[in-house]
């Protein structure tokens, strides 16, 4: 599945202390959906994969 991050502009800046390295309007591949919480596992701009809540994204391709 492909999703677009619909975050805030301030999160566009990738910083060491930023706990969310996602770029607004960028499309990310969902690696899996957590069975426990339903969150999306995506690889962010740090190169690591993390779980994020689905309300932060718009589904682009199912």
Characterise this structure:
By secondary structure, this protein is an all-beta fold. Helix content is 0%, strand content 39%. The chain contains no helices and five strands. The chain has a five-stranded antiparallel beta sheet with strand order 4-3-2-1-5, with no helix packed on it. The chain starts with a strand and ends with a strand.
Outline of the structure:
This protein is mostly beta strands. The protein is 0% helix and 39% strand. A five-stranded antiparallel beta sheet has the order 4-3-2-1-5, with no helix packed on it.
Radius of gyration: 11 Å
- Our measurement of the CA-to-CA distance between the termini, rounded to an integer number of angstroms, reads 5 Å
Overall pLDDT confidence: 85
- Helix residue percentage: under 10%
Poorly predicted regions: 10-18
Characterize the overall form.
Answer: globular
What are the secondary-structure elements, in order, as H or E?
EEEEE
Which secondary structure elements does this structure contain, and how are they paired or packed?
Elements: E1 2-5, E2 27-33, E3 40-43, E4 49-52, E5 57-61
Antiparallel strand pairs: 1-2, 1-5, 2-3, 3-4
Descriptive tags:
62 residues; mainly beta; five-stranded antiparallel sheet; 0% helix; globular
């Amino acid at each position: 599945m492909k999703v677009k991050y619909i975050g805030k502009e301030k999160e566009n800046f990738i910083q060491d202390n930023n706990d969310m390295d996602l770029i607004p309007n960028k499309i990310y591949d969902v690696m899996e959906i957590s069975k426990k919480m339903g969150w999306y596992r995506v690889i962010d701009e740090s190169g690591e994969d993390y779980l994020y809540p689905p309300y932060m994204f718009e589904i682009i391709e199912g």
